[in-house]
Design goal:
Blueprint: H1 5-29, E1 34-37, E2 43-47, E3 53-58, H2 67-93, H3 103-133
Antiparallel strand pairs: 1-2, 2-3
Length: 139
């Protein structure tokens, strides 16, 4: 396959753009936290970027609940917070909504993509070196 100077410039621009986007998304993932609330609104929760619980807040009316109902309130709020954190992470990485990925899976896929990108970039660089070595204008 023959490449023109325009093709090479376009490839370089695309590579630079994708690297910037991934670096920014990766940095932003560390700061994503999720917020959630139970269906009744009596309990709210916040989770960190790893989906771990940071805080739980109760309405004073929660004192009227028995322990089983209180436990359910907390579970609902935490799940909502984790779903919120997951949604934000997927948006940052432009993962389609059909996929439900946790932070570990996102990190694994990012590493997989990064390795594929590194390999592809090395292949492109090698093709560019070969093109430069055989460029008739250099003679």
């Amino acid at each position: 396959m023959d490449f023109t100077e325009h093709d090479v410039d376009e490839l370089l621009r695309e590579n630079e753009w994708e690297l910037r986007r991934l670096a920014e998304a990766s940095a932003n993932l560390r700061h994503v936290s999720g917020k959630g609330e139970s269906r009744s609104g009596l309990t709210s929760a916040v989770v960190d970027a790893d989906g771990r619980l940071r805080s739980v807040t109760f309405s004073p009316r929660v004192l009227r609940l028995d322990t089983a109902a209180l436990a359910e309130e907390v579970v609902q709020a935490v799940r909502q917070a984790q779903d919120d954190q997951d949604r934000q992470a997927r948006e940052l990485l432009a993962v389609p909504d059909a996929h439900t990925l946790g932070p570990a899976e996102i990190a694994r896929q990012f590493e997989e993509f990064h390795e594929a990108f590194r390999t592809e970039s090395a292949d492109r660089n090698e093709r560019l070196r070969r093109m430069a070595a055989t460029d008739p204008r250099d003679a």
